[in-house]
Design brief:
184 residues, Rossmann fold, five-stranded parallel β-sheet, 6 helices, FMN_Rdtase-like_dom
């Protein structure tokens, strides 16, 4: 099984990216192959539907999404929505690259929670025909912060992240097995 993670901040050392890196360690510990796309290190040109001859960074990201069995998207919450960097990246994605794949949404916010960004992200996933996981993760100032490895310092938040990742992996494995059985 392979999962693609996209860190949707273009800020170095972003909280959402650090949390996603911690989630990457959880996935690898569960023997899940991971492709990590960090939009702060892989800048993408501004999407325009007038140009379908994509930049190599865009092709790399789209290939990782197409190759993944599942997708985890992380974003900071800016003005009640997802980051412009992640929105731009998702504008390049076609529905057939995400259709039927489970997607876990992750957000970090300057306030208590990033629920608005998660709601917007799940709307985009629905429009790409992805399967929104019933779990989502939102951390904010009240969550106790992150350690140097990106792990939440608050035990309850850390357990919530672990539970969400485990349910995402379980869902992805079941859907991957069902798709393989249906395809013979």
């Amino acid at each position: 099984m392979k999962v693609t993670l996209i860190a949707g901040s273009n800020r170095a050392n972003a909280t959402s990216t650090n949390l996603l890196k911690y989630m990457e360690t959880l996935l690898k510990a569960d023997r899940v192959s991971v492709s990590f796309i960090d939009l702060s290190e892989l800048p993408l040109p501004l999407f325009t539907p007038d140009n379908w001859d994509f930049h190599p960074n865009v092709r790399h990201m789209l290939g990782a999404i197409a190759d993944g069995d599942g997708l985890i998207l992380a974003t900071p919450e800016y003005h009640g929505s997802i980051s412009g960097a992640l929105k731009n990246a998702l504008d390049y994605v076609q529905a057939d690259q995400v259709a039927g794949k489970p997607v876990l949404s992750v957000s970090s916010a300057g306030g208590p929670l990033g629920v608005s960004s998660l709601t917007h992200l799940q709307t985009i996933v629905r429009n790409l025909h992805g399967i929104n996981c019933p779990e989502w993760i939102s951390i904010g100032y009240g969550s106790g912060g992150l350690g140097p490895d990106g792990a939440p310092l608050d035990e309850g938040v850390r357990e919530r992240v672990l539970s969400a990742v485990n349910r995402f992996v379980e869902t992805t494995r079941k859907l991957t097995a069902a798709a393989a059985a249906a395809n013979g």
